[in-house]
Specification:
Elements lengths: L2 H7 L2 E5 L13 E5 L7 H12 L3 E7 L13 H4 L2 E8 L2 E4 L3 H12 L7 E8 L11 H11 L4 E6 L8 H21 L11 E6 L33
Parallel strand pairs: 1-4, 2-3, 2-6, 3-5, 6-7, 7-8
Antiparallel strand pairs: 4-5
Helix pairs in contact: 2-6, 4-5
Amino acid sequence: MPELETRIQNLGYRAIDTSFHDTSGKNGQTNLLTNDDGYAAEGINVMYEALTGAGHTVYLVALKGQNSGGGSTLGGTDALLSEIGILECGDGKWRVDGTPTTAVMAALVGIFAGEQIDLVISGTNEGENVGAFANISGTLGAAVEAISRGIPTIAFSAGSSVDGSYGGAYERAGSHATGLIADLMEAREGETLLPAGTGLTVNVPSADPAGAAYAEVTAEAPFVLGVQEYVPGNPAT
């Protein structure tokens, strides 16, 4: 049995105080919105407001709390053998007890099983996902899960300003997302928004960009952890 089918088979779903949303009457494009910072995080809620404000149907399905840096993990053996709690916490919003990948699976296999999702958006993440950090990003892990199921996916991540805030970048990401989706809908009318097996990752700067510049794709930059040899009796190690 393929690995993906095995992963799905091992997941059970326990709906807690929820009446799963009826999408039979939906009009236009339907977007699934998720992240790795939790359903209450500012980034995902700013994105939700931007997308709904642009006229899109948006369903927010995200974690009940922070789960960054886990990549595409499902949470280990205990998680695979446990049911997943899914709680409807508002109109068109659900929280999932699991990992970013689990949230996407819960949405596509559980909440919206058999329904058409036109686009999955993961983010906006608190912090950029560039270089080696992309390998462990839960934001990108969620995106990869959706891509593996043939659904066009875009991940958004935000850089912080000098004072550590993300507000400006979150609004900028929402604005860029709505514009990008509109451009894709026009360019690929009658087709999926992105070719099969394709996803995009967008990193939004903390400040208003002065313009755009082309970059050359080269070898991945190394990521070095600060590891020191332990010396007994030396508190600095």
